Design the sequence.
């Protein structure tokens, strides 16, 4: 299969590219390297240094003749979207529309779109939250993800362009950069290794911090492989269904690092408490039974196992 992965030099996208290449697919990457890195680019993939908003995108589609697009390129920070909603919408809506228009005009049969189960439901009443829960975005980032999902439904209805939507929980693992809440594992690891304090953001009524569903990137890869052939016309939560407070995540990261490099007990015990930032949800955890039933998705890693693998990778980059 000829597959385009937008954002294929980024944290999650590059891991997906590796999995597609290893599965025998012909993979092309479009990435502007705003947050992606040269060293993440698979040498067996074709790479275009290009912004998804560029008018040159259509020329790549015409030349490469893709069967499927996997769209990971995005502005991913909730606080950044609150601070600059115009920039967020420019990438996450206009940039995605540029990809959809190119897909519509060429050979693309399906789009795998990466949405956010960690943000799109807002402060959900159902917990863990299933796909049946009302969409109630509370940040510009979440709004753009939902708008993009609606555009997919339109393109399927109007142009017969198929899709599968993967609504990720909070993803962590090798190649993650410390960028906003989405990169909290990488941020904590970096600061601990540098002997610096970490900050746990929280609401007054929850001193242990936010509650999140953390899913290891190798499990996320599994969902992207399954979605190549399954899940047409549907959205799926992709996570673990297990909630973790930020302070508990911090302690698990300390344990994982201590198995690979000594981190002083005094440093492990140190973290600041900070007020919740604009757009921060109090809690988010995903019910993934639909993905299990219809895609065959089952996460294989506990939080401790995933963090240990992440710590082992992080130490090698020192």
Sequence:
């Amino acid at each position: 299969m000829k597959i385009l992965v937008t954002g294929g030099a980024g944290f999650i996208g590059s891991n997906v590219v590796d999995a597609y290449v290893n599965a025998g697919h012909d993979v092309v990457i479009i990435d502007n390297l705003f947050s992606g890195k040269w060293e993440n680019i698979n040498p067996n993939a074709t790479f275009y240094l290009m912004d998804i908003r560029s008018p040159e995108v259509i020329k790549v589609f015409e030349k490469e003749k893709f069967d499927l697009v996997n769209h990971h390129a995005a502005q991913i920070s909730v606080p950044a979207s609150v601070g600059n909603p115009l920039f967020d919408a420019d990438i996450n809506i206009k940039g995605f529309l540029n990809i959809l228009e190119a897909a519509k005009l060429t050979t693309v049969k399906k789009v795998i779109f990466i949405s956010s189960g960690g943000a799109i439901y807002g402060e959900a009443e159902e917990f863990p939250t299933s796909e049946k829960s009302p969409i109630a975005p509370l940040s510009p980032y979440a709004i753009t993800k939902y708008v993009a999902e609606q555009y997919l439904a339109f393109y399927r209805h109007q142009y017969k362009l198929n899709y599968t939507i993967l609504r990720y929980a909070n993803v962590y693992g090798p190649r993650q950069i410390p960028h906003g809440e989405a990169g909290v594992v990488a941020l904590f690891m970096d600061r601990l290794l540098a002997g610096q304090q970490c900050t746990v953001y929280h609401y007054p009524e929850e001193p242990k911090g936010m509650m999140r569903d953390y899913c290891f990137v190798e499990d996320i890869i599994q969902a992207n492989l399954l979605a190549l052939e399954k899940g047409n016309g549907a959205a799926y939560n992709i996570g673990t269904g297990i909630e973790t407070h930020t302070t508990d995540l911090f302690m698990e990261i300390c344990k994982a690092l201590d198995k690979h490099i000594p981190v002083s007990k005094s440093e492990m015990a140190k973290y600041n408490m900070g007020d919740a930032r604009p757009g921060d949800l109090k809690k988010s955890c995903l019910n993934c039974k639909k993905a299990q039933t219809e895609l065959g998705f089952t996460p294989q890693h506990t939080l401790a196992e995933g963090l240990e693998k992440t710590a082992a990778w992080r130490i090698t980059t020192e």
In short: The domain at 2-172+214-241+287-294 is CATH 3.40.50.720 (Rossmann fold). The chain has eleven helices and twelve strands.
